[in-house]
Design goal:
globular, mainly alpha, 81% helix
Length: 311
């Protein structure tokens, strides 16, 4: 279920290049404004669910949750701008770089350690995904700066999604409930200038076709599940694992295209797919091994202390 949710959400993001272009003289749907509507709906539904007793609403420090909401909203806006200012190939490269940047930030500022097995498996994964998805890489100064900022803000936002749940002892649902209004408010402020740059014109004065409106309504209906899945996976696992799952979705869709849809089979893509899947398998093994070591280490230390005391 979580993989399906990721697949749908990422497919919407992947279509952003198409949605941020003008078609038949009419402005395409504004993706940042649409994301703001997603967060507005998420905030309203979660508050209604809390009032009905489905979960306990828990407060998080106002200043901290505001910064968290603004950071995540900025990462969304920057990712949309990066997709608009860069080629699809360069945009895919920036998405691939989120994993190493996340690892570097966690090691440098959050004192998190990654085993050699995890690092090696991530390298194999990134090489495979890159071979399968990165094609037309075109560079420009503005797009490169925006792409770099989008990577850093996205990595920080995902790291904080996990660390804040642990720090404040809140569930993924409680953190999302606390931060969604601030994310919605920030995105509503950012949407007009960001979507204006991408599409031209004023998002609030634009007219949309019925097909576009139907897709937008469906995406809003699924937004709650998408947002919940994102916070839940990062909270239960880690920001790096969330990125790995996202790349797994990409590889599954690529394989589905070859096997079912009848997409042309390209040797480079197939090779990259196999390498990526191998990297994911190695990552899963390394993560399970590291978790087992982390679980047994305290018990072993306690046993050693008791033995020393007995002597």
């Amino acid at each position: 279920m979580v993989f399906w949710i990721f697949g749908f959400s990422e497919n919407l993001s992947g279509d952003a290049k198409r949605l941020t272009t003008k078609k038949r003289g009419a402005m395409a749907i504004a993706v940042t404004f649409l994301t703001a509507m997603h967060m507005v709906l998420t905030a309203l539904v979660l508050r209604a669910a809390a009032r009905m007793g489905y979960f306990e609403k828990k407060s998080v420090g106002r200043a901290e949750v505001v910064k968290f909401g603004v950071l995540n909203s900025a990462s969304i806006a920057l990712l949309n701008l990066s997709l608009g200012f860069n080629s699809v190939g360069f945009y895919q490269m920036t998405k691939l770089s989120i994993i190493p940047v996340t690892v570097g930030l966690q090691m440098t500022y959050f004192n998190k350690k990654f085993s050699a097995g995890v690092k090696m498996s991530l390298l194999v994964l990134l090489l495979g995904v890159g071979a399968s998805t990165v094609t037309d890489v075109q560079l420009n100064a503005t797009g490169s700066v925006i792409g770099g900022l989008s990577v850093v803000t996205t990595a920080l936002g995902q790291i904080l999604t996990g660390s804040m749940q642990q720090k404040h002892q809140v569930s993924s649902t409680q953190l999302l409930c606390a931060s969604a209004p601030w994310m919605a408010m920030t995105l509503m402020i950012l949407a007009p200038p960001v979507d204006g740059v991408l599409n031209g014109g004023n998002v609030l004065e634009s007219s949309y076709s019925n097909d576009v409106l139907i897709v937008a309504l469906i995406s809003c209906g699924l937004a709650i599940a998408v947002n919940f899945a994102t916070f839940a996976v990062i909270g239960k696992c880690s920001a790096v694992t969330y990125q790995v799952v996202g790349h797994l979705k990409t590889m599954l869709i690529l394989g589905f295209g070859f096997a079912v849809v009848g997409d042309p089979i390209v040797a480079k893509n197939v090779f990259g797919l196999l390498v990526a899947l191998c990297g994911m398998f190695l990552y899963a093994r390394a993560e399970m091994r590291d978790r087992a070591v982390a679980t047994t280490a305290p018990a072993r230390a306690s046993s050693d202390v008791e033995s020393a005391a007995g002597k």
